[in-house]
Amino acid sequence: MRRVGRRGLAAAVAGVLLGALAAAVPAHAATGAYACPKGYFCGWTGDDATGSMMKTNKSMPTMGSWDNRILAVSNRTTSIVCRYVDANYVVADGYGYERPDDPGAWSSNPAPATTSSLKFVKTTRECAEPPYGPWLSEKSPVKAGFGDIDRDGYADVLSRDLAGRLWFVPGSTGAGRLIGGGWNSMTAMTRHGDLTGDGIEDLLARDSAGDLWIYPATGRGGYLSRRFVGGGWNAMARVTAGGDLTGDGRNDLLAADRSGKLWLYPGTGHSHFGARRLVGGGWQVMSALSGPGDLTGDKHPDLLARDTSGKLWLYPGTGRGTFGARTLIGTGWNAMESFFAVGDTDGDGRNDLNTVTNDRYKIGGYAGNLGWQLLYRGTGSGKAALRSPVQQSGEWWELNGTF
């Protein structure tokens, strides 16, 4: 019996789980795999889609009389179907998954060879994990605000899965709550700061048409109806919210256009922005921007930028809409898939940085370690703003952004 580890899902089992796809008899005969109706997952006791056939369109924590009898399967649903060696979706002894099949196609002798439970999900990671990353933070001694979506003193995150669902994950419990679906239409998302004047941190998102939207937060981990900011934002390669950069008490937005100019859009506190100001040129060499808040201890929000060579730079904010001379944080940051700066994560009152790795990240000298969450604790000093990383969890794989 093939045993599959939790994190080896995509690489270790994808090829063998689908098995050998084959066509059965003509569709009009309605036998073999063609007998599986659209909208159902079917299993047969014979390994060539023969013998007795079961069908279901609902998850089955136990298989009843079909337990350990399934030798061929066909998935005619729009979901991914997880199959487990054990009952009740237990992953310990092995599991596999079946993507949707074309009519008349089946997997013969699919791994695992035995099936004692099956579950319908939207993404492959849900066979073994929640659809969001495992997130917990420590309560901060500073006033709730930056990074704290539900105003309970804990830094929270937003997580988008591959199916386009957006999840609110509170730092206090880690129990994610679904905000809604359809978020894969957004080509950029950023948060940090109250943009509507109610004292609650809001969300900004740009859709595929280039329209920018504000989603006003409720202060309870959800959002109200969105408000249109403006069009033409596809001209921007990078967009990040970084807090009050101008010192007027209103939170602002930074955007780098595709020619390399960095612009500051001053917040008004009324769901829109004032006339933009040019910060400077040459920013086309940056592959990521992140607004971490104040990292240097001077009460002014700062900016982090990664260049195409993998160097991470700190641009200290002046509080006047400009930045001081940059300092090098370190090299090798091309191993990071995403940055999410959500304020004070470890409860020491200083802002931190969290990242999720891509497959360039090395452990023990070996690359291929995607999906690790790393915590870089802030020092509150401009000379060495971030400490060495601490590996938090390796279960942040197959997500579509953490914010």
Automatic annotation (TrEMBL):
Keyword tags: Signal
Membrane-spanning residues: none
Keyword Chaperone tagged: no
Keyword Isomerase in annotation: no
InterPro entries assigned: FG-GAP (IPR013517), Integrin_alpha_N (IPR028994), TAT_signal (IPR006311)
Xref: Pfam families: FG-GAP_3, Inhibitor_I36
Domain of life of the source: Bacteria
Signal peptide (from-to): 1-29
Name used for this protein in its record: Repeat domain-containing protein
